[in-house]
Amino acid sequence: MIQRNAQTLSLSGTDSKLKRQQLKEYFANTWRLYEKLFEVIADDQAYYLKAEPLRHPLIFYFGHTATFFINKLKLAGIIDSRINPEFESMFAVGVDEMSWDDLDEANYQWPSVDQVREYRDAVFVRVNQVIDTMPLSLPVTQDQPAWVILMGIEHERIHLETSSVIIRQLPLEEVRNHPDWPPCPDSGPAPANRLVEVDGDLVTLGRDDSRNTYGWDNEFGIHQHQVDHFQVSKYLVSNQEYKEFVDAGGYSRAEFWSDEGQAWLAYTKAKHPGFWRRDGDHWFQRNLTEEIPLPLNWPVEVNQLEAKAFCNWKAAATQSPVRLPTESEWQLLRRRVEDNNPHWEQVPGNLMLDKWASSCPVDQFEHQGINDVVGNVWQWTETPINGFSGFSVHPLYDDFSTPTFDGKHNLMKGGSWISTGNEALADSRYAFRRHFYQHAGFRYLVSHQKLADTRYTNTYETDALVSQYLEFHYGAEYFGVRNFPKQLVSLLRPHLENTHRALDIGCSVGRASFELARHFDHVDGIDFSARFIQHAYELLQQGEKRFAVPVEGELVEYKTVTLADLDLAGHKLSLNFVQGDACNLKPQFSGYDLVLASNLLDRLAEPSRFLDLIGDRLNPGGLLVLVSPYTWLEEFTPRENWLGGFKKDGESYTTLNALKERLGSGFALIDSHQVPFVIRETARKHQHTLSEMTLWRKKE
After folding, report:
1. How far does Cα 184 stand from its chain's mean position?
2. Could you give the dihedral angle defined by the CA atoms of residues 39, 41, 42 and 48, in that order, rounded to the nearest 10 degrees?
């Protein structure tokens, strides 16, 4: 067998010369291992077959991992010239059904396999030149050229696995057995599965820089979850156990399948797992290079939809809450495996190509009473992937994780027989769409705990307008202009006499409401837009909000705001966000000591009605704060309803004139300010506006 050297590289040490040599060896091993995988392809024509409809043909992946090195090194400014600009564009992107993926083969003129081999040879030389000449200090950190090299290495090891899945779907005549890729020779009947008791505990997810190995952006940060006691299957679900579901007509019983699963069944017409084939009464399984009689004691390999359907069937049959593990529950199981890659002296399972180029029996590797906690096949979870608190992208690979933070990609844990490098770490977090096939199976558990640990999922808001306002309220300050909602509350503080109840009407995404909550016993934030309200509410409930702001064109910058950032973490805030109409508020919204209407008047269809009614919501002596740039536009307010901004009796009539006339009998104007604000549209386009802030005291 090929010498695997599959353990990822330690980032620390005392000898930078030795570390440079280790990096060269790790790169060379990764490169040659990847090319060895493609040696199982029998004929060059197979490189151009689309074995997996949701992915490119293999010629793409053969070139993709090489172009990744050049593209990232060029982006980082480590190299100043390309090797083949055409290849480095053609092979750059297109791997997971994302919106920018172009999977239309009519748009590609693929090069020959020999041309791609020549290109790979040239890249291999260039990368070695970089490793030989780049500055290197220890420990390796994310801002060093060595991190970029490791990024390319670990990326290629990911595609070692994904490419092997595609090869596994090629016609048998297009592949051949290979001495470096031997399958496990053992198979037989499966052991009866049974449940093992697992005590609950507090689980902390996420890594920090002290882990001393390369990590992808989604691994960093922190998330804690209290896991209750549960029972878990001792073994991965075997082909034999899953066959019971197939024989029971599981694929034709809609009640066991989610809506997504039913749609997948309708589209694919699937009747059994994708790597199975039935011939009369006989079942067969496709492995990397051969088809064998279905090995009953090997783990079944299915997508997440199938795994979930099996659990639902099992739950109905046993009248117990059977489901897949969550990420937190799996991490609790992971404690049974001692130490971690790269510190293993002996690989603790069918992992890292240490045993075979296939699965093996489910009862072969035990970890303190549970088999295959790591290795054999990946294990599907209930948990959609997302970033932990503190997540941030690496600037050289800002689309590694965030496109999967869509609720459609579920995490797999534990690694498979071909998982190497970073994939074999306890902290690794890989996710695929629920209908995708990988070398993945599952185990099940019985738990009465609600799936609370999937609720930290908090996708990045990308709606242009909402993101713009999130940045306006919670993002950076531009051109020396202070944060607008925060400045408003600061200006009104000297005038506060009673601080019991406040109303932030037209609160948008809520920053002023949070600032008011520092000073008032209770604050209601109301906005007509449910889109805006939900983000203020999520920040209040979850303590964190994430959003993406445009940089230029299709490029975006990912940002996160937390209550800790606002210095509100741990505060008991009496703050309520609701949807409502400023001109038709529900009766319970009254009795306020302050009403703030920020940038609202010139966006109302009937601003006069608002002014006529809002006084009834204020206590005597209460403060009405009106803030507006008076940008009257007919798209928001009919011309006849404008408060000002026109000629009246031949003279200019301003909005302030109108406010004095309309409010004068019931309010006293006590102060005014001109308050600037900046709204970012892109990195180089901003709106700079001046609002007039007037403070009105309701007469006793």
Report:
1. 35
2. -130
Amino acid at 184: C
Contact between 196 and 232 (Cβ < 8 Å): yes
| pTM as predicted | 0.78
Query: Which amino acid does the sequence have at 10?
Result: S
Residue for token digits 């994430």?
A: 546
Residue 531: pLDDT above 80?
A: no
Q: Kindly report the average pLDDT of the chain as a whole number.
A: 93
Q: Which of 23-27, 374-378, 456-460, 471-475 has the lowest mean pLDDT?
A: 456-460
Q: What is the DSSP string of 542-558?
A: HSEEEEEEEEETTEEEE
Q: Looking at this protein, which amino acid is placed at residue 517?
A: A
Measured CA to CA, the distance from residue 677 to residue 687 in angstroms comes to 8
Q: Which amino acid is at 611?
A: L
Coil/strand/helix, residue 575: strand
Closest of 300, 308, 328 to residue 261, by C-alpha: 308
Confidence bin at 100 (pLDDT 50/70/90): very low
The two counts, helices (H) then strands (E), for the chain are 15, 26
In angstroms, the CA 416 to CA 439 distance is 6
- For residues 135 and 47, give the distance between their C-alpha atoms in angstroms, rounded to a whole number: 38
Q: Report CA 363 to chain centroid distance, whole Å.
A: 34
Question: CB–CB of 20/131 below 8 Å?
Answer: yes
Query: How far from 612 is each of 584, 665, 667, 688, CA to CA, in Å?
Result: 11, 11, 12, 31
Give the pLDDT score at 592. 98
Q: Is the pLDDT at 376 greater than 80, yes or no?
A: yes
| C-alpha dihedral (22, 23, 25, 28), degrees to nearest 10 | 180
Tell me the pLDDT tens digit for each residue of 643-664: 999 988 888 999 999 999 999 9
Contacts 24+ apart (CB under 8 A), 279-285: 283/243, 285/239
Q: DSSP letter at 432? A: E
Query: Which residues contact residue 431 at a Cβ distance below 8 angstroms, ignoring those fewer than 6 apart?
Result: 384, 385, 404, 409, 410, 411, 412
Rounded CA separation 526/576 (Å): 8
Q: How far apart are CA 391 and CA 402, in angstroms?
A: 10
* CA–CA separation, 159 and 438 (whole Å): 11
Distance CA 553, CA 217 (A): 23
pLDDT at 456: 43
Contacts 24+ apart (CB under 8 A), 671-677: 671/495, 671/695, 673/491, 675/484, 675/487, 675/488, 675/491, 675/627, 676/481, 677/472, 677/481, 677/484
Query: CA-to-CA distance for 348 and 586, rounded, in angstroms?
Result: 63
